[in-house]
Amino acid sequence: MINEKYLQQALRIKKDFLKVDNTLLYLRNDLNEIQTNLKNALDKLMEIKDNNVNYSNEDEFNKDVMNQLAVFEKEANKAKHLYGDYNEKLENLRKEENNLYDSLKKEYPNLSDEKMVDIIQGYVKKKMAK
Predict the structure, then answer these.
(1) Long-range pairs, 98-102, Cβ under 8 A, ≥24
(2) For 53, which DSSP code?
(3) Strands, E, within 4-86: which ranges?
(4) pLDDT tens, 65-103?
């Protein structure tokens, strides 16, 4: 059997992952809106690039380009802000999971990966059902 401290660590990692995953699902609409806004700004910039928009003077052209670039930058920053923290949390969880795996392999060198996963998944499933 695997020491309880390792099992509890695996359970905490799983719970933390589910929290991040649920939050990302909750943010999906915001992220879809950002994606749409980015695509629209990019499409507008492509229309400008392809000369599909008529301008009466160069200042009007420059203003339109700068406005679209500002929209693009604003939306990209929104996405970075929304995703940034969660990407970092997911990366930290991945590192914790790898450290847990390394500790388990050191502590239980004769335990196969398959058996290790079965034990941990059984423990997590049991605790999550409570």
Answers:
(1) 100/6, 100/9, 100/10, 100/13
(2) S
(3) none
(4) 899 999 989 998 988 888 888 889 999 999 999 999 999
Q: Which of 5, 9, 3, 11 is nearest to 122 (CA)?
A: 11
Q: Are 107 and 9 in contact (CB under 8 A)?
A: no
Break the chain down into helix, strand, coil percent, rounded to 5. Answer: 85, 0, 15
Output the pTM of the full model. 0.71
Identify whether the C-beta of residue 48 lies closer than 8 Å to the C-beta of residue 71. no
Cα 10 from Cα 124, distance rounded (Å): 7
Q: Find tokens 């649920």 and name the residue.
A: 22
